[in-house]
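Hi L., both proteins are below.
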Amino acid sequence: MQDYEVPAEVAGWMNMIGCAVTICDWNGVILYMNDLSRKTFARHGDMIGKNLFSCHSERSQQMIRHMLATGDTNAYTIEKGGIRKLIYQTPWRDSTGRIAGMAEISIPLPEDMPHYNRDAK
């Protein structure tokens, strides 16, 4: 596993948004969780350094492996605890352009969120 440390100014910024951010490496080892992500998964204890494959179903593991192999992005919505969320999962690349892992951003959605079609005239 390649050591990777999120720069303080980036980590600070990621804690200032109302989204949960989780980043893993190519092998599924969790490298970073912002404060909201840590709070969301607190019942599992400290997840930094743990493998995310161990807490996902076989179907989810296959999807993660597919994204890591192809560079595809996966996005969907969920509702949990009465809160709707957009889950956005996408590979991140190292300085050589190779897929180095995956990032997941979980964004709470307002119940009455408007949708605008910018192509409509």
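That was the first. Here is the second:
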Amino acid sequence: MYQATITEREAGQRFDKYLQRILPNAGSGFLYKMLRKKNIILNDKKADGSEKLVVGDYVKVFFAQETLDKFMGRQSSPYVENGYALKQMTEQVTETKAVRSKKAGKATDAASGTAVYRQAYRMLADIRVIFENDHIIIADKPSGILSQKAEKTDISLNEWLIGYLLEKGDLSDSTLSYYKPSVCNRLDRNTSGMVLCAKTLPGAQLLSGLLKDRTLHKYYQLYVKGHIVEEQTIEGYLIKNEKQNKVMIQPTSGFPENGTVPKQAVGKRGNTDDEKAAYIQTRYKPLRAEQDKTLLEVELITGKPHQIRAHLASIGHPLLGDYKYGDRAWNEKYRGQFGVKSQLLHAYKVVFPTLEPPFADLSGRTFLCELPEVFGRVSRLV
């Protein structure tokens, strides 16, 4: 038999989703059958799986230990009894691990998965925690670190986050099977600054809701080529080229509100008829004009990949250090004198809206993240 009490970490999700997390090797059809037969109950009552879990709910699963081990994807204590072959047991464990690995896309056992996270925490020692409460973490990501891994072998902020919580004792091997803390907004590898992370499911729901509704305001500081003297909001349509991992910006004139690229524009750009264009808005304010550049504050009204870099480049003000959308000769000047190797783009401020408990400690607050040292170096150019 298995029993557990729901904590803040698991609360807020549907009961059937919770069951699929703790019993990853059991099919959904089987789980619903067990619910109907009351072999799985919630608060000592029959459940259908659609219930939304709250803190204090308690779950009971009336399976034999061997069945639990099988569906949880963990190996029972080794034994050889009545001629039971070690080879057969090894094959069974291997098969269980393969199923678990396929479903989760992660390490094939809890021990090795935990080791990866702890290693990430040790390796990415430059990541700094700006704010932390029971539900979220705001982390300062240095340039050069991935927010989330692109390849299986990558080490990213996401792995660091879990390793950090394991080291603190806020997570354990067992709780990782219910919920994995994760990054909620991504920064490009070479963009530095604040990243919002969810420690719990309620934290993830809060942050995803604020980002979707655009009620959480994110601000960046960056250097662009040339002088900008007025605050302005610019708009356009962003079209992504998946093969080149690059975007193009088109003006809003001639585009319908649904964002579909008109056929008359297709031939001019070599796009396909069914390609979609995402509407974007970027607001910028000059903070300081220098010899050949301007320090800007930029607020993302919409948030699309490469939006700031491509949008400002499209109006003749590319980012300093941006070799994908920028001015190579200008970048090389700063690379040679100051070692600028990537775009100087830093997520330096977030502003939360008014919030109710249990998030009252975030309500209306502004968090700041100091600029990397390289910003100070390049500002001294005369």
